[in-house]
Amino acid sequence: MPLSSKKLHRARAAKNDEFYTQYADVKKECDNYLSHFFNKIIYCNCDTADSAFVKYFTELKAAGKIRDVWFSGGLGGDDFRSAESVRKLKAADIVVTNPPFSLFREFMDLLIENDKKFLVIGNHNSVMYKKVFAGIKENKIWFGVRRWAGGMYFITSHGMRGVSAVWFTNLHHGIEPPEQPYTGPVEMERYDNADAVNVNKSAHLPPNYTGVVGVPITFLQWYNPKKIEILGLDKDFTYDGKPCRINGKVLYIRLFIRRIFTN
Fold first, then answer.
1. 138-to-134, 135, 212, 231 alpha-carbon distances in Å
2. C-alpha angle with apex 174: 115 to 69, nearest 5 degrees?
3. Are 152 and 138 in contact (CB under 8 A)?
4. 3-state SS class at 75
5. Which of 52, 100, 118, 239 is within CB 3.0–4.6 Å of 17 for a Cys-Cys bond?
């Protein structure tokens, strides 16, 4: 049966979205989770036999540190949404891969719906996807050991390419987020349509401010659930359900937070 135009569009998007992770980046991050991987079946459901992920986990299997590694190439290159790939997903213990960024929403929906443990790479802006954001807010999804700064470099058909990417996981790694930098006080204006003040740069947020603040989503690189409460994204928090405004000017997406102070 021929593919629908929608499926063809998705297939082309995935094909043009082939960013291959470097082995050094895979090893540097994954080495932090060896206790989670021990004696588990790892499924690299967006990878073929020659990927850095499969190479890394094949080495762990040879060393007796995991039970097995599965990958999509063993399924004839099946899409991660295919019936056989989903069957494998359900049977595996942990999913570790770099999914196509254009399909990241669908990919994460699949993991969350099947209650899977995972360590995957996604674009910074993926934090705004509904289920991903809900997971971060509820402390069910967090960032990997490697933080946001500088993005990551991937191998493409046109050479190396830098991407604003980060690791997402629900495996505990025990590494605290870095402390948010503070460069000094600035005037914090109030929103027209929300009971909160605006901060244009995360480094302008005073460390002792107790009120509700709207910050750029890049603030999440310093997010520590022990110190910060996430209240919602702008449209969840504004009076009118619209983006934040100051003096009538519409601002880019804001994340509403409040510091947690303990005695």
1. 6, 5, 18, 10
2. 50
3. no
4. helix
5. 100
CA distance 142 to 164: 16
Asked if the model's pLDDT at residue 165 lies above 60, the reply is yes
**What values do phi and psi take at 97, rounded to 5?**
-170, 180
Which pLDDT value is given to residue 49?
A: 92
- Which secondary-structure segment (H or E) carries 258? strand 255-259
User: Per mean pLDDT, which range of 4-8, 30-34, 116-120, 125-129 is the poorest?
Assistant: 4-8
Mean pLDDT over 164-191 rounds to 92
Sign of CA dihedral 123, 129, 132, 133: positive
Are the C-beta atoms of 194 and 244 separated by less than 8 Å?
yes
Q: How do 159-163 and 197-198 pair as beta strands?
A: unpaired
List % helix, strand, coil for the chain (3-state, nearest 5).
35, 20, 45
Closest CA to 53 of 42, 66, 39: 42
Does the pLDDT value for residue 76 go beyond 70? no
